[in-house]
Amino acid sequence: MELNQLTIHELKEKLLSREITSVDIVESVFNRIDQVEGKVHAYISLLREDALRGAAGADQKIQEGAGGELCGIPVALKDILCTKGVKTTCGSRILQNFIPPYDATVVEALRRAGAVFVGKANMDEFAMGSSTETSYFGVTRNPWALDRIPGGSSGGSAAAVAADECIASLGSDTGGSIRQPAALCGVVGMKPTYGRVSRFGLIAFASSLDQIGPFTKDVEDCAIMMNVIAGYDPKDSTSVPQDVPDYRAFLNRDIAGWTVGIPREYFRDGMDPEVSAAVKKAIAVVEDQGARCIDISLPHTDYCVAVYYIVAPAEASSNLARYDGVKYGYRAENCRDLLDMYKKTRSEGFGAEVKRRIMLGTYALSSGYYDAYYKKASQVRARIKEDFAEAFKRCDVILTPTSPTPAFKIGEKTEDPLQMYLSDIFTISANLAGIPGISVPCGYSGRGLPVGVQFLAGHFEEGKLLQIAHNYERHAHIERRRPEL
Amino acid sequence: MEYEPVIGLEVHAQLLTKSKIFCGCSTEFGAMPNSHTCPVCLGLPGVLPVLNKKVVEYAMKMAMATHCRINEMSSFARKNYFYPDLPKGYQITQYALPLAEGGYVDVETEAGRKRIGLTRIHMEEDAGKLVHDEHLPSSYVDLNRTGVPLIEIVGEPDIRSAEEAAAYLRRLHEILVYLEICDGNMEEGSFRCDANVSLRPKGQEIFGIRTELKNMNSFRNVQRALDYEIKRQEYILESGGEVVQETRLWDDTQGVTLPMRSKEEAHDYRYFPDPDLVSIRVDETWIREVEGTIPELPLEKRERFIREYEIPPYDAGILTTSKALAEYYEDVVKVCGKPKIAANWVMGDLLRFVNEDRGDIRTCSISAVSLGDMINLIEEGTISGKMAKDLIQDMYETGKPPRAIIEEKGLVQITDEDALTGIIVDVIRANPTQLAQYRSGKDKLFGYFVGQVMKATQGKANPQLINELLKKKLDQA
Ligand SMILES: [Zn+2]
Question: pLDDT digit string (tens) for A119-164?
Fold first, then answer.
């Protein structure tokens, strides 16, 4: 095994026993990048020199017996996270040369923990998409099948972990943007509770839904990453001042006596039979471990996509108003006047999907339509939240498929936005309700494409998710394959 | 037909907090362009607002001082529009759930006292400023003011004349300054006012079509603009026309209101709750805490001055125009114990000095203690009122206490009867013609002799004593 293929906890052991150095790991990661990045295109920018320098510093710290939780571990960051002095594009032409003068709070946290940054991962433009095809910097390919999408919007972060082009990564999840690509790329991805991880420095798509979370090679690494990034941040008014438990303490525990809710609305006709079969096997595994699976109902499930596609674009239409060519970012040339500058800059700077959502959102907030759309959607959103509150009175966690299908072909859904929007059908509800969710690999399709199972829990119950996900991972005996590249 | 104007005012007041409403930048006025900015108030990608608690407290003070009900829960919304002085493309303000609602202020005009209702008071952030280059087709953006906290005070359409409007504005202004939450500077824009004006036939209940007036940057301009607009609408209605609902700008140089280009006002602000901020919760404890910091307000103070010091309402009005002046006056009274005399000196000579030099009572060279002591010197008979007039001038110029100046200049009043009688005898002797005329019945010449004695004593003689002794000597045949 090459070092770049190992997990955080495996590498930490080797680092602490002085068997290897961080420089060894970083070199191994960049060797891999040199070999496969041309095919995968997981990154918008690479930070080779910084990473090597960082690794040398980390080795020094380890020598001194210091160093944090992630000391010397190469991590990739979705290019939606602001990095001080390092170009942060959000996958858009309008920010193609934007260099933030500050770090996102999670980036600061990773730095403090000693992580080494490999690069900025590709993504759908402003996180708007489920396939990483809307990036201004080109598509990312699924390492398991290069003619297929990696999922999105955090497709680059997922593909980088799956292709061993980093050890772990961070993404952001507004409607499934971590869990869906994790499922499609065969890695672990968690969206924490809204308010658990600071959003400061995360370029906003839909502020009431966005949440940062990790991509890792296994559940234990997910717990390690969560230990580093979770916590209250006075710079984010929506982050919650609640103590962070040691997430590793939830590993290696059993789930005997747990009740697992299986929402009937998530298992309907029309689901890909291979996905359905893999998830049913997962149900059997947790039952084997002593959990009781019960049928539950989340009655407002059918409204999730509709509500999401009002709330998210509405917030986006306002969040993206700042990209006007006045202060930073792209500005169109040869403008007649102010209005012309606004129009040209935004027409040329944004891609089609972003413009579509800005228009949707602007319409939903317009006077005369606000009550029928945004207000109504907010009311239904409250019902969806209640659905989950009711459900969690009866069960510890909920189990569902992560995505209705395995990875689809590049270009397959780009002409049909509605089909594209439906690929988040199982993940959107967690964002609307603000609850945490995790996607864990649960098998492969006949074509050898990864399939994921999703666990959902109540607010701030990430520990429970890690407990059942880790338990499942240990007992499901999913064949450990690696993508051939 | 007789028309009645219906006026409602919206006032924006900049709050005097040290830092901005959603970031730590300074709110200081007049700094180098863009020097008081940070990623948050510049609207850089990924940054988030954090509410400055002081802003809520200041807004609560104004709400309490104007008898508003403070909502237990209120929230912020986004008002979306594009303009280069608005870096985020939206202004954070309060919309559906304002901090406070339903208050009033009492105003006084020549027609008497009247209560004007307040619809609401809410908090919001100010925008930046554009500086246009006259020689180039370009503009500069200064974002120092971006994020400076404002409160908007929305009044009910209870106002019926330009005079009432001005009185209402003065009352709000006075309260804001008393509370020390706004400097009230209209030219610098820390106190701004927009007006909604319509006319209706007297006796009719339904409002007419209104116009919105902007760009009035002084009390005088508000009154002028309203007077003009009322006349303009009256003329339209009289001649059978219809008022167009629009925004109009006051043009100070021409003295008219002019319509704003319709393109600039065709906004749909698409208000919605700001997802980056959580609801503001104000509990009883916080209310009581803030309540404890509210000083006596101008109207209460005025009434107390009339009651306690038995001074005329006119005097009480002037002496309470600012908190500092009222404090000064009370300190003078504390030293001398003569409220009416103290009022005369403060309103007369002292305010004249301060106003002539455009000074500030708080930094005036004559301290309240000095002025009080000067009044004591008059009361004791050490100096005459006339001497005091010169003395106060010296005190103002030198900043010295009255007793020090008196000692230096030997300004003690002559109260010794024998010495004064001697001087009077000399004066009478030196003016035989006048003496003869006086004695032949020209009583008016008595004043002439008083003047001569004053001159001879360099004003140091006690006037009462002069009168007494002079009368005696002149009448001695
Ligand atoms: Zn600032």
Answer: 999 999 999 999 999 999 999 999 999 999 999 999 999 999 999 9
Residue position matching structure tokens 């020209």: B442
CA distance A212 to A106: 8
Q: Is A177 a residue of the active site?
A: yes
Architecture of domain B417-474 in CATH? Orthogonal Bundle (1.10)
Q: Which of A135, A154, A177, A439 is catalytic?
A: A177
The C-alpha angle with vertex A411 and arms to A408 and A414, in degrees rounded to 5, equals 100
Chain A residues touching residue B92 (CB < 8 angstroms): none
Alpha carbon A267 to chain centroid, angstroms: 23
Cβ of A238 within 8 Å of Cβ of B45? The answer is no
- Cα–Cα separations (whole angstroms), residue A398 to A264, A402, A455: 11, 12, 6
Q: Which residue of A has its CA nearest to B24?
A: A235
- The 10 Å CB-count burial string (b at 16+, else e) for B92-118 is bbbbebbbbbebebebbeeeeebebbb
Which residue in the set A101, A315, A328 is minimally distant from B275, CB to CB? A315
Q: What is the pLDDT along chain B (477 residues), one digit of tens a residue?
A: 899 999 999 999 999 999 999 999 999 988 999 999 999 999 999 999 999 999 999 999 999 999 999 999 999 999 999 999 999 999 999 999 999 999 999 998 888 889 999 999 999 999 999 998 888 878 899 999 999 999 999 999 999 999 999 999 999 999 999 999 999 999 889 999 999 999 999 999 999 999 999 989 899 999 999 999 999 999 999 999 999 999 999 999 999 999 986 555 567 999 999 999 999 999 999 999 999 999 999 989 999 999 999 999 999 999 998 899 999 999 999 999 999 999 999 999 999 999 898 888 988 999 999 999 999 988 887 888 888 898 999 999 999 999 888 888 777 777 777 888 888 888 888 888 888 888 888 888 888 888 888 888 877 777 788 888 888 888 875
A-contacting residues in B 250-289 (Cβ below 8 Å): 268, 270-272, 275-278
Chain B interface includes A284 (CB < 8 A)? no
Of B42, B268, B271, the CB nearest to A327: B42
Q: Is B50 on the interface with A (CB under 8 A)?
A: yes
Distance B27 CA to ligand 1 centre (A): 9
Of A206, A342, A362, the CB nearest to B270: A362
Q: How far apart are the first and last CA of chain A?
A: 15
Dist CA B446 CA A333 (whole Å) = 91
Task: Tell me how far apart the alpha carbons of residues A252 and A223 are, in angstroms, rounded to a whole number.
Answer: 12
Q: Which residues 366-425 of chain A have a CB within 8 Å of chain B?
A: 366-367, 370, 374
Amino acid at A423: S
Window A:187-226, CB contacts with B under 8 Å: 199-204, 206-208
With contacts defined as CB-CB under 8 Å, which chain B residues touch A208? Answer: 275
Q: Copy the structure tokens of residue A270.
A: 């029309």
For the stretch A81-94, pLDDT in tens is 999 999 999 999 99
Q: Is B24 on the interface with A (CB under 8 A)?
A: no
Q: ipTM of the assembly? A: 0.96
**A78 flagged as catalytic:** yes
Q: How far is B141 from chain A (nearest CA, A)?
A: 9
Burial B147-178 (b: 16+ CB within 10 A, else e): bbbbbbbbbbbbbbbbbbbbbbbbbbbbbbbb
Q: Which residues of chain B does CATH 1.10.10.410 include?
A: 417-474
Q: What CATH superfamily classification does A3-255 receive?
A: Amidase signature (AS) domain (3.90.1300.10)
Instruction: Report DSSP state, residue B470.
Output: H
State the pTM of this model.
Answer: 0.90
Q: Any idea where the domains of chain A sit in the sequence?
A: 3-255, 302-378
Q: Where are the beta strands (DSSP E) in B28-155?
A: 69-70, 73-74, 77-80, 90-93, 100-109, 112-125, 129-132, 139-142, 149-155
